[in-house]
Amino acid sequence: MNFDYNRLKGERIAKGLTVQEMADALGVSKGTYSKKENGKLPITVEDFVVISSKLGVTRETINIFFTVNVSDSETIVI
């Protein structure tokens, strides 16, 4: 399972939030948040709790940020 950074950015934009607003919510600089959103710095569990809250994502829909990797050997070609 992988974190979908593109979905994170898309959700932020869809909610009309700026990088600066997200950075302020996390208590980090704009540059640091940008690096987190782009996968260059890790997003901690604590960060993710704040981010999902700011984005209004519920526990029931939190899975939108995760993708499941399926290896080629597990796929069925029809």
TrEMBL record:
Database matches in PROSITE patterns: HTH_CROC1
Domain of life: Bacteria
Protein's name in the database: HTH cro/C1-type domain-containing protein
GO molecular function: DNA binding
InterPro entries documented for this protein: Cro/C1-type_HTH, Lambda_DNA-bd_dom_sf
Domain HTH cro/C1-type as annotated: residue spans: 8-62
Organism annotation: Domibacillus antri
Alphabetized SMART domains for the sequence: HTH_XRE
